[in-house]
Amino acid sequence: MKPQVYHVDAFTSVPFRGNSAGVVLHADGLSEAQMQLIARELRHSETAFVLKSDESDVRIRYFTPTVEVPICGHATIAAHYVRATVLGLGNGTVWQRSLAGRHRVDILAQDHSYRITLEQGTPGFEPPLEGETRATIISAFHLHEADILPGLPIQVATTGHSKVMIPLKPDVDIDALSPDLAALTAISQQIGCNGFFPFQIRRGKNETDGRMFSPAIGIVEDPVTGNANGPMGAWLVHHNAMAHDGKTLRVLGHQGRALGRDGVVDVNVTIRDNQPEKVTISGTAVILFSAEWAIDL
């Protein structure tokens, strides 16, 4: 079958909101070079290529316009939303394989739509970024040390695809951030992490507002990022920065408002001994249009 291309907005049920992703079904006949060209042509922050797998239900490869990445939260939500819609799936579990490993995806049919939940990788944290590196990151965002939540680190966190966590005080105007993209690109090369996620906790709520910048891999700003909000949830538990019951933490991660593409990532963190053990992210999506590939590849 020819590849089938879908334009999907994820982490929203409203068209033209959330984070847009490309999804390509029947991608098994495509070479890596062709996948990269298609992702470049579609110009989404990520495009997911859905492939057959001998060891899981499905295999997915993810490409930005310039490079392949291990996994992408919003493109995963989009890919399984498309697959569930096309196949008419009911409630169930799908196991997917990607460069980030094997992951569980739960599908919940609801109101003629679907909610997709992705179990992310094991939470991990690098040593805090301190001294000159910390100061350079703060300066790249045209911020000051006084804008950072006191007593908390700027730190690389991961649940499969690492991001730099930058915790801001609630009174910082996060929508006004306009970072030095060249400086962020240079910092990425130094620390080996391409994504920067400044965020702030809404006063008195288990909700956050965040923005994600990744210019080193061709993404000036990503509207709604599962691979940032998921690690953020783990980071909040790791540093006891948000109240929880000792078993789970649920956070609604708001993102995209500054771009007019607001969406919400529902983050759930399973906790053991006051540390994050497992992270899931969930959301819905909406298909804007689809098309069969018209040329021979």
UniProtKB/TrEMBL annotation:
<dbReference type="Pfam" id="PF02567">
    <property type="entry name" value="PhzC-PhzF"/>
</dbReference>
<keyword id="KW-0413">Isomerase</keyword>
<dbReference type="GO" id="GO:0016853">
    <property type="term" value="F:isomerase activity"/>
</dbReference>
<comment type="similarity">
    <text>Belongs to the PhzF family.</text>
</comment>
<protein>
    <submittedName>
        <fullName>PhzF family isomerase</fullName>
    </submittedName>
</protein>
<dbReference type="InterPro" id="IPR003719">
    <property type="entry name" value="Phenazine_PhzF-like"/>
</dbReference>
